[in-house]
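Marked as duplicate of an earlier ticket. Keeping the data here for the record.
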Amino acid sequence: MKTVNRVLAALNLFVGACAIVGGLAAIISPEEPFGITVDLLKGTPFDNYLIPGILLFIVIGIGSIVSAFLLLRYDLKYQGYISSVFSWAVIIYLVVQYIMTDLVLPIHILLFIIGIVEVALSIVIINKQRQSSFQS
């Protein structure tokens, strides 16, 4: 179980770091983060990348890092659920982003796959916790 927690924590840290970098870029330069112009946002509810950047930074960035910290530091009853929420947030964010912009970069594909792996590992943790609670 410790191995699953460590792998999931490492993935959470990676996703969180990527989201913080991407979110900060969008917050600092909402008109053109990483050279991506606001032209991609035509037909979306956003005029620039500020709101998506804030969501990316707070929900996925900070959320994933907090989840990793909790995985490594504490043995919480609901840790699998906590990790699952932030893993699904990554997947949903990327799907919505694609639907709105039609933009897919290699990092998006990587993060989508990692999100799926995180959900699977979260389910492993949830099942292990359920089994141990039934045996107690």
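See parent ticket for discussion. The two ends are 17 Å apart (CA to CA).
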